[in-house]
Specification:
Helices cover 40% and strands 12% of the residues. Strands 1-2-3 form a 3-stranded parallel sheet, with helices on both faces. A 3-stranded parallel sheet has the order 4-5-8. The chain has a two-stranded antiparallel ribbon with strand order 6-7. A hairpin with a 5-residue loop joins β6 and β7. The protein is globular and about 50 Å long. The protein binds zinc ion (2 copies).
């Protein structure tokens, strides 16, 4: 088996996953356990994507001091599995602002096979970086305590930052591009039906389409909440614009590696969308 890019791998088989976490960030299992489980679940291509080192306080991101250990372990597993399982050294890189994102030298110089660009942090008016990912209960508390309850402002800022990140580029796959919908809908279940919301998401679709930037269909919440990131309603317009769609489970534990993937492929079939 020759080494493929994530997009080539996704075009060749459904037995892939390029979004996963381990002991190096907020995953619940080691890289070794995740690779073994991936092979056991029939994967042929498996990418590790730890949350990148970051410059604001975060319990979810890997430490810069662990980078070498991560690269060493990925190389060891790549050799160990050889052709049985293609192991990829990736990273889910956080965008904070123009000074810190996938495009900066720090990440560009890393020996990565690919990277995912994701927005998890937004700066509030006081200049504090706030993790707007994670559990809805915490988001609702932060929304009131750190953003004065301004839900629309937070959602607008999320998509605005994502657009800046896409503009700067430097990453391979756009990560869970409307994930804010999950936490935002904990405050307003109608949020995704509003015209202003849909216009923001349409801007992201347009930005990806004009660059042919691969977009993941993140299935982490597909089984438990019947929710994909991005939502199913934009898959068609992405596919029609020739944006490669990559089905990723964002696994944080061995049981999550295949979670939601079959369901997503069935939905893609139903919509008559070929991936990528
Ligand atoms: Zn993420
Ligand atoms: Zn992730």
């Amino acid at each position: 088996m020759s080494r493929l890019s994530p997009v080539e791998a996704a075009a060749s088989t459904r037995a892939y996953n390029f979004h996963s976490h381990t002991q190096f960030c907020d995953g619940k299992a080691s890289m070794e356990e995740m690779a073994a489980a991936a092979l056991g679940q029939g994967m042929e291509h498996y990418g590790f994507s730890p949350h990148s080192p970051i410059i604001c306080p975060s319990g979810a991101n890997m430490k810069a001091d662990d980078l070498q250990a991560y690269f060493d372990e990925a190389a060891r597993l790549r050799d160990l599995y050889g052709d049985k399982l293609e192991v990829y050294t990736g990273m889910e890189i956080d965008w904070l602002d123009a000074d810190f994102g996938p495009h900066i030298d720090f990440f560009q110089k890393m020996p990565l096979d690919y990277s995912i660009g994701s927005v998890h942090f937004l700066r509030n008016r006081e200049g504090e970086w706030v993790d707007i990912d994670g559990r809805p209960e915490r988001f609702l508390r932060y929304l009131d305590e750190k953003f004065r309850g301004d839900l629309r402002g937070v959602v607008e800022r999320y998509f605005e930052q994502e657009l800046y990140m896409i503009e700067r580029g430097g990453f391979t796959i756009l990560g869970h591009c409307d994930k804010i919908s999950r936490n935002a809908s904990a405050r307003d279940p109608q949020i995704e039906s509003y015209g202003w919301y849909q216009a923001l998401l349409a801007d992201v679709v347009e930005a990806c389409a004009s660059r042919k930037l691969p977009v993941e269909i993140n299935t982490r919440r597909a089984e438990s909440e019947d929710r994909y990131f991005p939502r199913e309603s934009v898959w068609r317009s992405l596919a029609d614009r020739n944006v490669p769609l990559i089905v990723n489970s964002d696994a944080h534990e061995p049981e999550g590696i295949s979670s939601g993937r079959e369901k997503a492929f069935a939905a893609l079939r139903r919509l008559d969308i070929k991936t990528p």
